Amino acid sequence: MIEIEDLTVSYGQSEVIHGISFSAVKNETLAIMGRNGMGKTTLFKSLMGILPSKCKKATVDGVDIAGNETFQRVHKGLAYVPQGRMIFPTMTVQENIETGLEKSKSRQIPEDIYALFPVLYDMRGRKGGNLSGGQQQQLAIARALVTNPKVLLLDEPTEGIQPSIIKDIAKVLNEIRKMREITIIVSEQVLSFTMEIADRIIVIDKGNFIHENKRSEVDAAKIKGYLSV
Ligand SMILES: Nc1ncnc2c1ncn2[C@@H]1O[C@H](COP(=O)(O)OP(=O)(O)OP(=O)(O)O)[C@@H](O)[C@H]1O
User: Fold this and answer.
1) Beta strands in 35-193 (DSSP E)
2) Residue 228 CB less than 6 A away from ligand 1
3) pLDDT tens by residue, 175-228
4) 8, 9, 10, 11: which to mutate for ligand 1, most atoms within 8 A of CB?
5) What is the pLDDT of residues 105-149, one digit of tens each?
6) ABC transporter domain spans which residues (predicted)?
7) Which end of the chain, N or C, is surrounded by fewer C-beta atoms within 10 Å?
């Protein structure tokens, strides 16, 4: 569903992502794990075309996205939930979701959105800023899903969210995969969370992929070693 080959990203003269390659198939959840500053956000922003990058190959569902602007990548099936959620605090929940439609071909919020997030339906008239952290994360995911993506990127969705709510986010991501059969790529530092959702875990360190395992074969102690300072 998504194939990236030899991706390099730089800030000016400083190269931060050093030629990484990966792919993920339909209905797969891939977790990219690493400590702060290892390049997760840079990777996701480059995949969305927010940051310039170089690569040998970048495709979504077989369609070339290399060099494309963000809106073109969204049309071709990529969606992004940024770190920190970036919802609009003074807009209502419904208005926040509708902003996701601006880059979509459709004008209507898909029917399954409120089925996936009943709490957002109940709160659709409330201001986004009045929602809890977990609810704001659900709102950010809902906003990304209205474009009916083939590949959903989520940058550290558990950041700043309390442990009991982290479980709800895991549940919702598993539900999304079941309902939509999409590819989910998530960047994370919380191993217990990725073990609930991911089929495969890759560790990123200083802009290189240094370790990869299927969930069933994960050596938790080893990954925790990579994630601790
Ligand atoms: N605008 C920028 N200009 C220059 N260097 C940057 C910029 N943004 C990030 N970097 C550097 O790029 C590297 C990767 O940062 P990035 O934010 O992608 O990491 P991250 O794994 O997402 O970490 P975090 O979890 O803290 O967001 C770091 O060394 C960082 O200092």
Assistant:
1) 57-60, 63-64, 78-81, 151-155, 183-188
2) no
3) 999 988 899 999 999 999 999 999 999 999 999 999 999 999 999 999 999 998
4) 11
5) 667 788 889 889 999 999 999 999 999 988 999 999 999 999 899
6) 2-229
7) C
CB-ligand 1 contact for 206 (6 Å cutoff) = no
Asked whether 214 and 221 are in contact (CB, 8 A), the reply is no
Q: Supply the ipTM of this predicted assembly.
A: 0.93
Q: How far apart are CA 23 and CA 5, in angstroms?
A: 8
Structure tokens at 93: 């929940």
106: domain CATH number is 3.40.50.300
Is 82 strand, coil or helix? coil
- Specify the number of domains making up the chain: 1
Tell me the two tokens of residue 203: 């560790």
Residue 199 has which token pair?
A: 């089929």
Identity (one letter) of the amino acid at 172? V
Nearest alpha carbon to residue 24 among 171, 151, 197, 174: 151
Torsion angle in degrees (nearest 10) through CA of 84, 169, 63, 3: 90
Residue 81 has φ and ψ, to the nearest 5°, of -110, 105
pTM here is 0.93
Structure confidence at residue 105 (pLDDT) = 64
The values of phi and psi at residue 96, to 5°, are -60, -45
Contact 209, 19 (CB under 8 A): no
Q: Which of 100, 65, 70, 106 is nearest to 86 (CA)?
A: 100
Cα–chain center distance at 209: 18
